[in-house]
Amino acid sequence: MDCSQCDEPAVIYREYEGRALCKEHFSRSVEKQVKQTIRKHNLVEDGDIIAVGLSGGKDSGVLLQILHDIFGERPDIEIHAITVHEGIEPYRTESVETAKEMCDRLGVPIHIGKYEDEYGITMDEVMVKKPEMHSCSYCGVFRRDVINRKAREVDANKLAIGHNMDDEIQSALMNFLKGDMSRMARLGAKTHKVPSEQFMRRIKPLREVMEQEIALYAQVNDLEVHIETCPHAQGALRADIRNFLNQMEEQRPSIKHSALSSIDKLLPVIRDEFYGEASEVTPCEECGEPCSQDVCRKCQLVRAVKDK
Ligand SMILES: [Zn+2]
Ligand SMILES: [Zn+2]
């Protein structure tokens, strides 16, 4: 099959828009979509210092590449990569190497935060010592803490994350199925409100690109990405929803696009009702990070993990 726009062979047939695209036209179209998302939601502004959460995997790798291509020459915008090493071997050491190579190639400074240095414990150790505490949500609390602190060290005012269209729809459906509307209200292309200057505004420039197209983008543009998934990964519900969505998309192309559009129409309404007022923010008694209790959740978890 040839490209609908030129004579080159197609790398993809987009059933949802009924056209085939060659490598060049496909890549330009993905980049155009990301630019559109950035413009529509005003994700990047003059003077921004953007920290990119870079795991070494395909989503964050493509995100860093495209942001660098769009803004790399702009003197008023800075880009830094923040990479977290949770101490999961050999998976993380390998992906951190990939992340370093990406940054070297693009000339983007990389800042690596390790659980071992920050909390004196690795996730592999948590698995052994506290198997009951092994959970992606705990690991996520630590990861956000490391990323926020590293991002503040470089004076970043925004944190760009590689969430794609599939991630966003999966999260919306998960929150819906769990009845968690205040979480649902926190979805969207950027953080709706930040309760304190110390909180980083998160932006999701890849939010309107399907996961499958991000993988293809990485492949046709020869981006070296780390493919393995975390060996401790859980999340049966997300995996089920993911399979369900992929199956639906196969049978009814464009269903993901319409799902995302529904989410975007619902978000303002859900936010009005469920976002709630930002709760009072005070420094954590132990680490000084902004939090809504005396001791932040991260410090409570660190305590629980170390408690023999
Ligand atoms: Zn073409
Ligand atoms: Zn704390």
Biggest sheet strand order reads 5-4-3-6-7
**CATH homologous superfamily descriptor:** HUPs
Choose one word for the global shape: globular
Structural class: alpha/beta
Oligomer: single chain
For the CA atoms, what is the radius of gyration?
20 Å
Query: How much of the residues is beta strand, in percent?
Result: 5-15%
Q: Report the major sheet.
A: 5 strands, parallel
Bound molecules: zinc ion
Count of beta strands: 9
How far apart lie the N and C ends? 62 Å
At the first level of CATH, what is the class? Alpha Beta
Q: What fold name goes in the CATH topology slot?
A: Rossmann fold
- Please tell me the overall pLDDT: 92
Order of helices and strands: EEHEHEHEHHHEHHEHHHEEH
Number of domains: 1
The low-confidence runs, each spanning 5 or more residues with pLDDT under 50, are: none
What portion of residues is helical? Answer: 40-55%
The CATH architecture category equals 3-Layer(aba) Sandwich
**Helix count, per DSSP?**
12
What would you note in describing this structure?
- This protein is of the alpha/beta class and 308 residues long.
- It has 12 helices and 9 strands.
- It has a single domain (41-278), classed as HUPs (Rossmann fold).
- It binds zinc ion (2 copies).
- One zinc ion (ZN) is lined by residues 284, 286-287, 289, 295-296, 298-299.
Features:
two-stranded antiparallel sheet, 12 helices, 308 residues, Rossmann fold, 12% strand, alpha/beta, five-stranded parallel sheet, binds zinc ion
